[in-house]
Amino acid sequence: MNAASKIDACVFDAYGTLFDVHSAVGRHQAALGEAAAPISQMWRTKQLEYTWLRTLMGRYEDFAKVTADALDYAFDAHGVTDSSLRGQLLEAYLSLDCYPEVPGVLSALSGAGIRTAILSNGSPAMLESAVDGAGLADSLDAVISAHDLAVYKPDPRVYQLACDRFDVDAGAVMFMSSNAWDAVGARAFGFNVTWINRFAQRRERLGHAPDHEVEDLSALPGILGIG
């Protein structure tokens, strides 16, 4: 595919794609000891599961509530009862580290005249905090939240928000996510998809596959023919 000739907008998932979801626990690893990595992984897993389950149940809560509930589950599973540490981790989640290649990639896209956006399950306040904390606000044309619909990805209506924001068809969007399920959901919707497989996941068996699979975002300019 001659991607550069057909892509009008590059749209990024936020958590795990631009921002390191494990950096919150990483900052408090000493306090958690050997439980740090398992807690971080369980926190993330339950966070995702709760978005899917709440959408299916028709019982929406915003991503901040989902994130807190998922942390409470992980703490309970590992016998952690430190309420002050809970607060510190939730605060840290508002200013996650961005991956090192992200600023340069966004700059390259902007320089090539390609519009950029985040499309995330994150609540608007959470996304604003993450973007500002990472210094990315000037590198993005839009930050789009599923909160506006009170449902979560991979509901097709969430992906449609990006098309509406840029007034383009799905085929004019390149979508990036580190989540295998999100990559499949976006491809099923009709986006061109680059799966940022940071965590060496296996492909999902859901009838769709991403157009590209790479280890990090540094490969994106080359895929688009601007690097």
Describe the protein's architecture and organization.
The protein has helices at residues 3-6, 23-26, 29-32, 36-57, 63-77, 83-92, 102-111, 124-133, 156-166, 180-189, 220-223; strands at 9-12, 115-120, 142-145, 173-177, 192-196, 212-214. It has 227 residues and is an alpha/beta fold. α10 (180-189) links the parallel β4 and β5. α4 crosses α5.
Q: Count of DSSP helices?
A: 11
Strand count, sense and closure of the main sheet?
6 strands, parallel
Q: Helicity range of the residues?
A: 40-55%
Rounded mean pLDDT is: 96
Beta-strand level of the residues, as a percent range?
Answer: 5-15%
- Largest beta sheet: strand ordering: 3-2-1-4-5-6
| Secondary-structure element string | HEHHHHHHEHEHEHEEH
CATH top-level class of the largest domain: Alpha Beta
CATH topology of the largest domain: Rossmann fold
Overall structural class, as computed from helix and strand content, comes to alpha/beta
Secondary-structure arrangement, i.e. CATH architecture of the largest domain: 3-Layer(aba) Sandwich
By CATH, the superfamily of the largest domain comes out as HAD superfamily/HAD-like
Number of domains: 2
DSSP summary, beta strand count:
6
End-to-end separation: 16 Å
Which regions have little confidence, pLDDT < 50, spanning 5+ residues? Answer: none
How large, in whole angstroms, is the Cα Rg? 17 Å
What general outline do the C-alpha atoms trace?
Answer: globular
